[in-house]
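Throughout this chapter, every protein is written as a compact record of paired, labelled lines. An example of such a record is reproduced below:
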Amino acid sequence: MGKIVLILLLPIYLLSENICTYKMFNITSTKDSKIIDFIEQITDVCQLNLIIDTSVTDKTLNKMLSRVYIKEKRLDEVLSLFLNENNLFYSLEDDILKISYIKTETYHIDYISSNRKGETSTEVTVGGEEGASSGGTSNVGTKIESQTVFENFWQDLKDEVASIATRPEDDYRAEAPIVNEKAGMVTVSGTAFQLKRVENYLLKLEEKLKRQVLIDVNILSISLNKNNMTGINWNSFYNTISLDGVTPLSDIPSGVITTASVEQILEFLKYQGEVSSISNPKIVAMNNQPALISVGNEYFYSIEETEITDTTAGTSNTLNSTKIESVFAGILLDITAEISNSNKITLNVNPSVSQTVQTVSADTTRKVPPDLTKKQLSSVITTDNGKRVILGGLITKSKSVEKSVVPLLGHIPIIGAFFRSQKQIARNEELIIIITPYILDGTSGLEKVESNLKISR
């Protein structure tokens, strides 16, 4: 039979106290000692009442131990070190020691309970006549859509926890975890080793989910001059901006990553054409959560609907109604940021630009939606904290009529036509999007970002 030697170190002035209230232990064991030997001796020395749960089998209690050497540890440290390392739970209340093999724990996950979908879309549907000849309704117009879906978070989490809880080397096969999506709770039953694995995973998951990114976006429109009608010459950008860290984006013909300030970028763009700022939003987004930016106009139109209801008397009732619909024309930007363990930021960027084919008056009553043109790109970019990503290449073309009139003479009837002129002007405008992501790590991180934003301007 194995032997475990427990030496209790107790100051003389504490001899009047319970022997397990103030204690320091030195423990040594032989190679053929068992778990039950340790439990019996510790309860005997400390005069504890022992309760062993039915989940603890004789096989577990009679498991042979490796050599144990513990020096000057308190009772709670000894129990934690010895029992938890042997895949057992314990609780010590007053003089009652309870030991179990299976335990149930509930973990809280701070995450939005519903399925998440980040989507911005505009779809035009014009109703047609239902019948044998038409076959239903007809869809016309355009659909502008930007979408990021998180549909299976809780189901994926349940599957992942189940996989982590039960490994091939485990003697006990844990039951499937119970997930309460509304309360954000995950309940798992398992051994000490199994629950420790689950706890470590959930801690890392929550830490990842709670990381935040401040996304600073500058949306600019460049009216290109005659020398750059085909788009901005980004090759000259590398020569103009002398700072290090200028990296071309291989998957986008017009795009770079740079440490240059916004002022330096604007100075470069002024040589390409007339620069105007459309919007400069700043959004704080959770890690891996979509941020949606929309800048534009909503165009409303009315649809006349007629409903004919047959009656049993051979007559019919006609009901006329008007339905108001709308289409969106402008800029849609969907950005999702993911932070790596090395603080690299991966951006999933989906900008789209739509505009009306013809000029639409604000006070015009429309019965059909205006025709739209649309340009869109999609890219995944990896950058560093605080570096700027510049996206370009979305060029829109428009034509306008410029009129000139000679004062007084141009308003004279008949002959005034000789003093008036008009010419058609073609304009090319390129949309430039500057995205600067900042990782927010607590209050100090936010202060640092605010400082960087002031300096970069």
Notes: Helices lie at 35-46, 58-61, 75-85, 153-165, 192-210, 235-240, 262-270, 442-456. The longest strand covers residues 316-339. The chain has eight helices and 23 strands.
